[in-house]
Automatic annotation (TrEMBL):
<feature type="transmembrane region" description="Helical">
    <location>
        <begin position="7"/>
        <end position="28"/>
    </location>
</feature>
<keyword id="KW-0594">Phospholipid biosynthesis</keyword>
<keyword id="KW-0444">Lipid biosynthesis</keyword>
<dbReference type="InterPro" id="IPR050324">
    <property type="entry name" value="CDP-alcohol_PTase-I"/>
</dbReference>
<dbReference type="GO" id="GO:0003882">
    <property type="term" value="F:CDP-diacylglycerol-serine O-phosphatidyltransferase activity"/>
</dbReference>
<dbReference type="InterPro" id="IPR048254">
    <property type="entry name" value="CDP_ALCOHOL_P_TRANSF_CS"/>
</dbReference>
<feature type="transmembrane region" description="Helical">
    <location>
        <begin position="138"/>
        <end position="156"/>
    </location>
</feature>
<dbReference type="InterPro" id="IPR000462">
    <property type="entry name" value="CDP-OH_P_trans"/>
</dbReference>
<dbReference type="GO" id="GO:0016020">
    <property type="term" value="C:membrane"/>
</dbReference>
<feature type="transmembrane region" description="Helical">
    <location>
        <begin position="112"/>
        <end position="132"/>
    </location>
</feature>
<keyword id="KW-0808">Transferase</keyword>
<keyword id="KW-0472">Membrane</keyword>
<dbReference type="Pfam" id="PF01066">
    <property type="entry name" value="CDP-OH_P_transf"/>
</dbReference>
<dbReference type="InterPro" id="IPR043130">
    <property type="entry name" value="CDP-OH_PTrfase_TM_dom"/>
</dbReference>
<feature type="transmembrane region" description="Helical">
    <location>
        <begin position="78"/>
        <end position="100"/>
    </location>
</feature>
<dbReference type="InterPro" id="IPR004533">
    <property type="entry name" value="CDP-diaglyc--ser_O-PTrfase"/>
</dbReference>
<dbReference type="GO" id="GO:0008654">
    <property type="term" value="P:phospholipid biosynthetic process"/>
</dbReference>
Amino acid sequence: MFKIRNIITISDYVTIINIIFGMLAILLHDFRFIYISIVFDALDGVVARKTNTVSDFGAELDSICDVVSFGVAPAYLIYHYFDSTVVLIASMVFLIAGALRLARFGILDVKNFIGLPIPAAALFLCVVTETFLKYGIASNYSVSFFAIFSGILMISDIDYIKYPKKPFLAIFGLSIVLSLINITEPLFLCAILYVLYGIFNFKK
């Protein structure tokens, strides 16, 4: 019998922080907690490699946390804010696509991501929705479109790079910080550029 206390590592605790913020996003109806979850989702891999604690248990835990923070939470939030049948259907499409994306990721061993990663899809959907709400241009149909579009990208065969260059990571990190004080425009641009990068660099 495997005891949790014997197999859990420091990187797994970082992963758990990810799901905590995902739950807070749901309970407090706040997109910003999803952005924070993305930070800890990135950090758990770094910590695992630096401390040599990469494990199958950690990989499974990461996927479970991701489906909550980046699948359930965004799907719930868009329905919470728009509360319509079309958004409900779109949110379910997003969630199912995210679960399929994570399941496929677990059995692949490739250099790049195949399909838009679920944290990036959640970021794209959430920051677009939040920015549109900020400017009063969001609608049931626009949000539904972005949810379904994100879902399609997640289960697509489009390649997305795993490790962007350091200058982009620095800009992205600053954009995350700014988003926490409701300056979402830089993060909005980062999300759009990452999504478009994969689409325009896709080779059949």
